[in-house]
Amino acid sequence: MIYRFILVSDEVDDFRRDITIDSDATFLTLHEAILDAVNYEKDQITSFFICNDDWEKQTEITLIDMGSDFEEDSYIMESTCLSELLDEELQKLLYVFEPLTDRCFFMELKEIIPGNNQDQPQVVKSEGNPPKQSSPEETLDFAKIATTPLPTADDLLDDGLDFDDEVGFNEDELADFSDDNLF
After folding, report:
1. Which residues of the chain have pLDDT under 50?
2. In angstroms, rounded to a whole number, what is the distance separating the alpha carbons of residues 28 and 81?
3. In the chain, what are the domains?
4. What is the pTM (predicted TM-score) of this model?
5. Which residues of 150-175 are buried (b: 16+ CB within 10 A; e: fewer)?
6. What is the pLDDT of residues 37-69, one digit of tens each?
7. How many Cα atoms occupy the beta-carbon half-sphere of 178 within 13 Å?
8. pLDDT value of residue 70
9. How many CB atoms are located within 10 Å of the residue 81 CB?
10. For residue 50, which of 21, 83, 24 has the smallest C-alpha distance?
């Protein structure tokens, strides 16, 4: 069987990708097809979530084993076939590509085509540009952070702080906390 998925984004109105893939393919193959279809780097931890009709997350399929609770079933993309968890048209999924901010693509299994097989996933419809993989306000410049020297004690003192003028305990108040008065 072949599955046809539709991907849309709540960040970009005119974005859409339709991907066809064999039902015996793994979620990892679908993950890679999505990243290729939107030209995203493959260096992020991502997850699929099978959702109910109200887009509430139910079953998670992770890129790597997250060591979840043994009472819950855990699914890993590499070892989970699409047909294992998806068996009806119009099933809803989320593909979370930026987990810290929960940015995602909304997906729907639009069509199941029985009697056919497909070796490789294919983008059969491509409209608009996808949202940027990382939004500028969420991206940290780790190279800049790593090379920026920390301030020294002298820098902090030269910053206009005068510790003699600080408001705090006076000597009479400190005498109240002498060893004789503690117990």
Report:
1. 136-139, 142, 183
2. 9
3. 2-133 (3.10.290.30), 142-182 (no CATH)
4. 0.71
5. eeeeeeeeeeeeeeeeeeeeeeeeee
6. 999 998 888 999 999 999 999 999 999 887 665
7. 5
8. 54
9. 14
10. 83
